[in-house]
Amino acid sequence: MAELTYDKNGNEVRCGDIVEVKGAYFKRHNGLYWVEQDGTNESYCGTGLTMLKICKNGKISKAKYNICFYPIWTCTSDRMKNAIADEHNKENATIEIRHDIDNSYVKDEIKQKIENDKSQIEYWEGRFGADYVSPNRKDLEYFTKALNRLEDANK
To answer: pTM for this one?
Structure first.
């Protein structure tokens, strides 16, 4: 299991949270994101956070470069620039959970992921039998917990 990530105020960053990244070396890494993977999903093979860019009004961004990982890592064709950017990001890049952004679009995105996982589970169980262990079950549990947490927070 991956190590949990905390924002600059000491709050645990979890799936579905809207966060703001500031101080990154490359301008495209700064901005608002929603956390898609926080490292606690057993079927996720990454470490740290996987975040997808959102607009200031909470809508999911359709930008070309709409994904960011935290801790931020860079991948350019210049090794020196990568080293400088990585060092800068370690020292200066911060992440903060934002509660003042509309998260209804994020909830809709998570609901869509849940529906996709359910349909995948039905398909594979229909094909291989009810005792087939689908990897989508872990994702379904993960995103269902995240959605329940977000809906409980809005009550």
So the answer is: 0.90
